[in-house]
Amino acid sequence: MKLLPNRRLVRFADVGSYSPYCICIRDDIIVIYIWSVTVKFNEYNNRNHVIWMNTDGIVTKRSLFSEIGWKRPCSIQNLESGLCVLYCLNCETTLHSIELLDAKSDKCDKLYCFKGIYGFNPQKNFECKGICVDKAGNILVSDYRHHSVYVLDKELKYKKTLFDARNGLDKPAAICIFNNHLWVADGNQIFIFNYECVGSS
């Protein structure tokens, strides 16, 4: 329950019978990504339910879509251009993918996917523990395997490496931007770097 300024009580929206896997908030819009997977005839089928609601708990939009395969959401960012999702590719490895979904589509159609850097196929080499977004809409990515944090543009194309092992990074994981600083969780320590927005793409 939530008490509104006019003293009226409202219920926060029911997000369904499955547990949310990730959540984000931007411009007073909360986005919740609910996911479940079933196995039939040795084939995975994942069910995706994305809910947009305001801070009063009122649902403003829902998207429901299914895909063949095992692709679990780990983190989401609500952008003007769509919904950026970090997925774990399967239940047996720690590999990841990043996709930009069309938030205007009822089925959250895929607009772009991250193609990798350094000439490595991300489906075989990309292990990411965190993403965040700067004010210009660039996506910042922690690359666990390559000990680095780099920037992708709004089409998920590599722009530049910000920090890497030369800056002390070893196992960069969760990242966020706060007060023009980039915070990076790395093993048992946290690095705080000055960060200026990489210009709009």
Report on the architecture of this protein.
There is one protein chain. This protein has one helix at residues 122-125, and strands at residues 2-3, 9-10, 20-26, 29-40, 43-54, 59-68, 72-78, 83-88, 96-101, 110-113, 128-133, 139-143, 148-152, 158-163, 172-178, 181-186, 189-194. The chain has one helix and 17 strands. It has one domain: 6 Propeller (Neuraminidase), CATH 2.120.10.30. With 201 residues, it is mostly beta strands. Strand 15 and strand 16 form a beta hairpin. Pfam families: NHL (PF01436). Keywords: Repeat.
- SSE sequence, one letter per element: EEEEEEEEEEHEEEEEEE
Mean pLDDT, all residues: 88
Helix content: under 10%
**Number of discrete domains:** 1
> How many strand segments?
17
CATH superfamily: TolB, C-terminal domain
Radius of gyration: 18 Å
- CATH third-tier fold name: Neuraminidase
Low-confidence spans: pLDDT under 50, at least 5 residues? none
C-alpha end-to-end distance? 42 Å
Q: How many H/I helical runs?
A: 1
Pairing-aware structural class of the strands and helices? mainly beta
Largest sheet, described in full?
4 strands, antiparallel
The CATH class designation is Mainly Beta
Keywords: Repeat
NHL repeats: 130-155
